[in-house]
Task: inverse folding
């Protein structure tokens, strides 16, 4: 979804970020050739709008929710929000190849005469432009990957974070990770033994199910509300004993790049 134009650039609005690329024709003494560079095709905003919602204000609200919850339970909560959990480079290359292939078909079957010398450079430039566009658009990466791949990427990222952030190393084994990955639209919950032993399985599974529904339309306010519901459950079955230090940071880890 992009618009090609050859007029002066419009001023960016406050809430829109534009990536620009160029697709144009040039004419030489040997006929026209396709020219691709970076500066003429205006792209609409490709990043998922939900990323903007997880700003400093959202971070403070999540941190406050965690502090409030941990006053009423021995559980140690860690909130992680990531823009994506995998590199998705293969999806970028695939989209670049598709763009290059379409461009090549246009050159070969167009009634215009293109200079043979420039065709390889045009195809390469189209590949690079396509890969760059894909790297800036979550919807393209989501479209070119399977649901299973995205689920595995989010699950792997959450498992790594569970150990990287030290959640698995709490003294009472009461760590709880809530991991939201925006590109994949997945929310993963990792709980240590202490939490799983304290909360009845049926109630815990219901709470996790409600949490995971947030990933369909990620929103900080909805996430905070769901966290407080989980906090009430933890307060009921894993109340504070007064012997549990605050071992993990309350502030969320928000990594949107």
Result:
């Amino acid at each position: 979804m992009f618009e090609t134009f050859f007029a002066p650039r419009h001023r960016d609005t406050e809430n829109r970020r534009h990536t620009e690329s160029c697709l144009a024709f040039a004419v030489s003494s040997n006929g026209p050739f396709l020219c691709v560079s970076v500066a003429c095709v205006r792209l609409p905003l490709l990043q998922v709008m939900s990323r903007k919602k997880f700003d400093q204000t959202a971070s403070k609200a999540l941190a406050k929710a965690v502090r409030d919850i941990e006053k009423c339970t021995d559980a140690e909560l860690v909130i992680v929000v990531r823009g994506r959990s995998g590199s998705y480079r293969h999806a970028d290359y695939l989209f670049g190849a598709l763009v290059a292939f379409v461009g090549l078909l246009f050159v070969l079957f167009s009634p215009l005469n293109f200079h043979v010398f420039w065709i390889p450079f045009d195809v390469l430039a189209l590949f690079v432009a396509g890969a760059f566009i894909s790297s800036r658009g979550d919807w393209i990466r989501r479209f070119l990957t399977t649901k299973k791949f995205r689920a595995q990427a989010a699950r792997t990222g959450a498992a790594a974070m569970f150990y990287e952030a030290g959640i698995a190393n709490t003294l009472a084994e009461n760590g709880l990770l809530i991991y939201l990955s925006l590109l994949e639209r997945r929310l993963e919950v990792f709980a240590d033994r202490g939490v799983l032993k304290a909360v009845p399985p049926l109630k815990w599974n219901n709470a996790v199910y409600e949490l995971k529904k947030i990933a369909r339309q990620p929103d900080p306010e909805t996430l905070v509300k769901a966290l407080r519901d989980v906090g009430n459950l933890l307060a009921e079955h894993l109340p504070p004993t007064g012997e549990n230090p605050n071992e993990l940071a309350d502030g969320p880890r928000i990594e949107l790049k």
